[in-house]
Amino acid sequence: MLIGFIWGRYFDFNLLGKLQSVVTNIPEKSTRQAGFQFTNPLLDCEYSQSIGDIEYKPSIAKINEYLNASKSSDQVQDAAVYYRDLNNGPWFGINEKDPFSPASLLKLPVMIAYFKQADENPGLLDKKLTYKNVKGLIAPHFVFQSNLVEGKQYSVEQLIEQMIINSDNNSLFILQDNIDNTLIDKVTIDLGIETASTNSPEDYMSVKSYASLYRVLYNSSYLDREYSEKALEILAKTTFDKGLRQNLPKNIPIADKFGERELDNGVKQLHDCGIIYYPKHPYLLCVMTRGSDYDKLSVIIGNISKIIYQDIDSKFHNK
After folding, report:
1. Spatial separation of the C-alpha atoms in residues 72 and 93, rounded to whole Å
2. For the segment 158-181, what is each residue's pLDDT rounded down to a tens digit?
3. Does residue 182 sit in helix, strand or coil?
4. What are the Cα distances from residue 311, in Å, to 53, 62, 289, 305?
5. What is the dihedral of CA 37, 41, 46, 52, to 10 degrees?
C-alpha cells in the first residue's frame, strides 16, 4: 500500500508538471468588447508566448530584403519597424530597440495628457485659448494648411485637433504652455516609455516603446473608453498621406501620427506610426527612418506599409 501511495503521488506530480508545461504554451485567447469604431478593449486574455517571428517570417524577409537594397542605393541610412496584430497579439520587430528622435510623434502624449485631465475636469476641453504664431519655429518639410487665425480664441479641443490632424506646432506650444508639463511626462512614465530630460540625447525613443501609446488607446487601458475613442478618431483624420497610407486602399481607416526632424549634422528623420484598420484584423505598424532626403524616406515608409498590407490581405481577404 505504501509503495502504491508513493507511486500515485509521483504520477500525480509528474502529470501536473506536464499539464502545466502544456498550459503555459497554449495559443492566446482573448475576449474583447465591441461597439465602438476605433477602440476594442481587451476584457480577458490568456497567456501565450510570442509567435510573431514564426508566423510573420515571410514579411520580415521581404522587409529586410527591401531595406538592404534601399541602403545600398542610399535611399535610407537606417530604419526600424514594429508590427503587432491587435486581435491576438503576435508581433515582430526589425531594429525595434534602436533609438531615434521622436520629433512630432511627441504630440500624441500631449493629447493623451489633456484627455486624462479632462476626465477629472470635464470643462477643460472647452477652455478658450488665444492662437498665436510662435516665432523662431523651423519651417517643416511637409507643410499643412492651418485654418486657425492668429489672435482668435479656440477651445482646447480645437487646438488638440489642429496639433494632431495638421501637426501644427503653434497649437502644440500653446497647449504645452497651458498644462503642467509633468502631466505630459507622466504619460510616458506611466507607460514605461523613454522620457526626455535635459540630459537626453537627440535619439532616445525606440519604435517598439512608442508603439505602446497606440496599444493603450486601442485597448482603452489608460484613458477611458470615451477618450480613447476620441483620440483615435482625431488620429484617423490626419492629413499626412506620404507615409503608412500612401500605397493603401483609400477605404481603409488609418489612425496615425507622423514626425519629421533634421538634426544639426544634417541627417533627416521621418517616422509614421499608427493603427491600420484592416477589416476584422486591425494591426499596429510603426516605422522610423533616418537618411538624407525626406521624400525618399517617405517612399521607404510607404513601401514597408505596402509589404505588410499585402501579406495581411493575402491571409485574410474574404475571411
Report:
1. 21
2. 999 999 999 999 999 999 999 999
3. helix
4. 14, 10, 22, 10
5. 50
In this structure, are strands 153-155 and 128-130 parallel, antiparallel, or unpaired?
antiparallel
Question: What is the model's pLDDT at position 298?
Answer: 98
For residue 34, how many other CB atoms are within 10 A of its CB?
A: 7
Residue 107 has pLDDT above 80, yes or no: yes
Strands 30-32 and 205-206: unpaired
| Continuous segment of H or E residues that includes residue 44 | strand 42-45
Q: Distance between alpha carbon 264 and the CA centroid of its chain, in Å? A: 26
Confidence at 29, pLDDT banded by 50, 70, 90: very low
Q: Classify the phi-psi angles of 157: left when phi > 0, otherwise alpha if psi is within -120 to 50, otherwise beta.
A: alpha
| Residues 196/176, Cβ–Cβ less than 8 Å | no
Amino acid letter at 221?
Answer: S
Q: Which residues of 222-240 are buried (b: 16+ CB within 10 A; e: fewer)?
A: bbeeebbbbbbbbbbebeb
Decide the pairing of beta strands 283-291 and 268-276.
antiparallel
Residue 299 C-alpha cell reads as 517612399
Q: Give the residue from 260, 278, 269, 284 showing the smallest Cα distance to 211.
A: 284
For the chain, the structural domain boundaries read 51-316
What residue has cell string 495559443? 27
Phi, psi for residue 86 in degrees, rounded to 5: -85, -5
Q: How far is 205 from 105, CA to CA, in rounded Å?
A: 10
Q: What is the pLDDT of residue 316?
A: 86
Average pLDDT of the chain? 85
Q: How far apart are CA 111 and CA 167, in angstroms?
A: 12
Name the residue among 102, 127, 123, 248 with its Cα closest to residue 184.
102
51 or 310, which is more confident? 310
Confidence (pLDDT) at 135: 76
pLDDT score at 184: 95
Statement: 51-316 belongs to CATH 3.40.710.10: yes
